[in-house]
Amino acid sequence: xxxxxxxxxxxxxxxxxxxxxxxxxxxxxxxxxxxxxxxxxxxxxxxxxxxxxxxxxxxxxxxxxxxxxxxxxxxxxxxxxxxxxxxxxxxxxxxxxxxxxxxxxxxxxxxxxxxxxxxxxxxxxxxxxxxxxxxxxxxxxxxxxxxxxxxxxxxxxxxxxxxxxxxxxxxxxxxxxxxxxxxxxxxxxxxxxxxxxxxxxxxxxxxxxxxxxxxxxxxxxxxxxxxxxxxxxxxxxxxxxxxxxxxxxxxxxxxxxxxxxxxxxxxxxxxxxxxxxxxxxxxxxx
Length: 286
Hints:
The protein is mostly helical. It is built from 7 helices and 8 strands; from the N terminus they run ββαααββββββαααα. The chain is elongated, with a radius of gyration of 23 Å.
């Protein structure tokens, strides 16, 4: 939760916050549209997989096992998306670049500090300003309209999980479509689905197209994110070819910084990474 300068009520700064300051929410029309579209596409995949492929299947064991797998992956993908979207990515408090605050932080006269002219904040090392969020974000990787949020220090784990689970259900959906086509052709489209053959073909082809697009996009994004984490360099730093002014961590430490110590909690969008370093509360959200 955001901690205002000098303590006090954490809800004093309502910028990008909703529900009395409990949740981070970027009020961007394009981002909200993309987020809702993502949910609708997941619901369409749910409809086709369940109503057209699995429920009419004459093989109960195949249907039951794949229903459990698909529903579990879809639920985790949706939860990861919500967690990425409603988590503070690491926003730096606005307006803390005042003379009084600089003195309070212990800076000496003549000591170099970095100030963001757009949100009037003292920028920590590796922070970048996001024009959509209108805040400086710690270790900002990029702003993703599909989750209507920046991907930064506090929510990168959830974004990686989102890409992983979306890629998983996309590959699983393609597998189910192929098996369904084979079953329909074998039975000459008799009792293949509750819909007519043209409608069934249309639904399966559209799901195949959607799954292929999502699979390609999310697999590439997942690989990009993991590479950036292992190299301890964000997407913006790679794009700008910034020279590392920080001491780079080992690959193990870089992974632990994002996901915490290894456990099954790595794969859960409901747990926060453990064992991460603490920061100066004047600079950071806690």
